């Protein structure tokens, strides 16, 4: 089985995810559930409602029931697994949780989401406190929202929804960034990620700081660092964007981008090109070949804030992926 925890978190605030409803947030707001940062905790830090927690925490129930939070996925897609992280919740975590999914169009209000017909993804399952509770999901359909139900009450630090983004083709331009996580691209391998994961390069928006990119350790040999990206769709790349913003004393000296459509025959998209520190570099290219996977090589090492590969996808590919993972009447 695929290690789903290595896949992108489709619910992350960094991809645009958000909490659209929570029926109780007495001790700590549900917005914490989708933060991309790891939970933190400072003992004996109190506000007017008690110990401060970096998570969602509801009040103690005095009657039968459960608490619910609904999350809009930042990148709708196929969910391979969820992580109900109860970090630092020790005497106040929920003993059980369940996860359900929903696929809807547009931007429904909570009043429309609450009575909807939700699909069970993870049945009511036991949780451990101060732990990452991992649950695989086998449903191969595309979802736009998830519902976290905790029994009967308590605190959850993060809800990570790992999977593969499947964009709505009606919302995409004819030419788009086929290396974007939000469009379904994913990192498949890399040589080194000592200081920063290469997945950061595929996130939306500008990097906020040096830790918001891919950075390798310093090489002490004659080799170079690299990363491979499975593109969101087969495409002929027409623009390469290599952004070294924030990397001032540790930017790569040079870079190349190559592509393949079979994993064997690699061709140049961008030949070896000199890079400058702390600079967005944009290069028009004309490889005249379609790639399904791209490989970025940096020489000899260093950091890259963002990688963008703009291209026109092969006819019908995005639509086919959307229909394959959607229920009847999705378009």
Give a concise summary.
It catalyses: allantoate + H2O = (S)-ureidoglycolate + urea. The chain has 2 domains: about 5-165, Jelly Rolls, CATH 2.60.120; about 175-315, Jelly Rolls.
Give an overview in words:
The structure is a single chain. The chain is mainly beta and 331 residues long. It folds into two domains: 4-165, Galactose-binding domain-like (Jelly Rolls, Sandwich); 176-313, Galactose-binding domain-like (Jelly Rolls). The chain is built from two helices and 21 strands. The chain has helices spanning 110-113, 317-324; strands at 18-22, 46-47, 50-51, 56-57, 67-85, 96-102, 119-126, 132-136, 142-151, 155-156, 158-165, 176-177, 186-190, 214-215, 225-243, 254-260, 266-274, 280-284, 291-299, 303-304, 306-313. Strand 2 and strand 3 (50-51) form a beta hairpin. The chain is globular. The two termini are 31 Å apart. The relative contact order is 0.16. Residues 16-164, 184-313 form the Allantoicase domain. Keywords: Hydrolase, Purine metabolism.
